[in-house]
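User: quick one - fold this with pyridoxal-5'-phosphate bound?
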Amino acid sequence: MGQEDKNIFRKGLAELTPYIPGKPVEEVRRELGLKGRIVRLASNENPIGPSPKAIARMKGVLGEVNFYPNGGCFELRAALAERHALTPGHFVFGNGVDNLIPLVVNTFVNSGDEVIIPIPSFAAYRTSTVIAGGAPVEVPLRDFQIHGEDICRAVGPKTKMIFICNPNNPTGTIMPAGDLKSLLTALPREVVVVMDEAYYEYVGHPCYPDSLAHLRKNENVIILRTFSKIFGLAGLRLGYGMARPDYVTEMEKIREPFAANRVVQAGALEALEDYEHICFVKDVHEKGKQVLYRGLEDLGIDFVPTEANFIFADLGVDMECLFPQLLKKGVVIRPGTAWGYPAFARITIGTPDQNKFFLDQLATVLKEFQ
Ligand SMILES: Cc1ncc(COP(=O)(O)O)c(C=O)c1O
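Assistant: Sure. C-alpha cells for the protein plus pyridoxal-5'-phosphate:
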C-alpha cells in the first residue's frame, strides 16, 4: 500500500489492531482437522445456555422478524426500571456492551480529551477512545487489581472519562465499594466514570460496590450490563446502559436506531424473570469454580481468585508453545499474550464435564514441557 493510500484512512487506525476473539470451534476443527471433542473455554460464555422459557418466547416471535424491532425496547426498559428502582429514562440499549462502549465515548469524548483506562482490561475501551480522537491514559493494575488511588493520580485537566471494568476482564478482580466511593468523591464533576459490569451477576464478594446507588444520587456514573453472560444470550447481542437521564438524552441522539433486535428483546424479558434458571447457572458456575481452583492447585498453577466466570492463571509456559498443544487436544482457552502476560491464560469456567476435560488435557500437555 502506497503512502497516499494509507492517508485515506482515519488517523487513529494506524495505532490499532483487530480484536482477537477466542478461537471458534469450527475454525479449530477446520484448521487442525480434529474429529474428536473440542471444549472452548475462551470467551466467557454461559456454558449452560439461555433459559428454556426465553428460547420458547424467542421462537414465538420468529414469524415477526420482517418488522423492525421497537428501537427503545419499551417493555424491557420498563421491566429493568422496576427491577433497578430507576426510571425508564435512565436506560439505553445496544447491540451488546460492545456497541455501547463506542456510544458512550462518542457522546462525551472530544478530540484531545484524555480517557483513563486500566491495563490489562477490556480492549474495546482503547479502540473506541483512539477512534474518537481521544488520548488513552493507561494505568497499570497492581496485584491484578484496579486501584482507585492510581486512577486518581492519573486524572488531569484533560481527563473526560474513566473506564472501570468491575469485575475486571481478564483478571476477574473487583474494585471494592470503599475504593469506588473515594474515587467518585475525589473526581472533578466533569469526569464521567463508566462502570463495565458485564459480569455483575456472578459476583459474590461482600465488598462489591452498589454502583446503582451512586447513579441514584445523580453521580457521573454510567453502568453497562449485558445479556451475554449469565443470561446466556451472547449470540443475539443485547446490552444496556444506565445513566442520568440527561446523559441518556444525548446518547439517544447517536445510538443505532434498531441495535436491539426483536428476537433478543423477547428472550431477554423471559431470561430476566427466570430465577430458577439463573440459580441453576450460578450453582454450576460456583461448583465449577471450586473444581478448577482445586485442579489448578493440584497442578501447582497460580491463579487470581475470581469474581467473574473466568480464571486468569499463570500456566508457567509461554502460550506461544502451550496454546497450540492444547488446541491439538481439543482445548481452546484464551492466551494472556494479548494482555502482556505470555505465560498466563484466561479460562472460562465451564460445565463439570468441560472443566474435567480441560484439567485432564492440561495435565497431559504440561507433562510434555517438564
Ligand atoms: C468486560 C466486558 N465488557 C463487555 C463485553 C462485551 O459484552 P457484550 O457481549 O454485551 O457485547 C465483554 C465480553 O466478553 C466483557 O468481558
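One thing worth noting: Residues 275-298 form the longest helix (24 residues).
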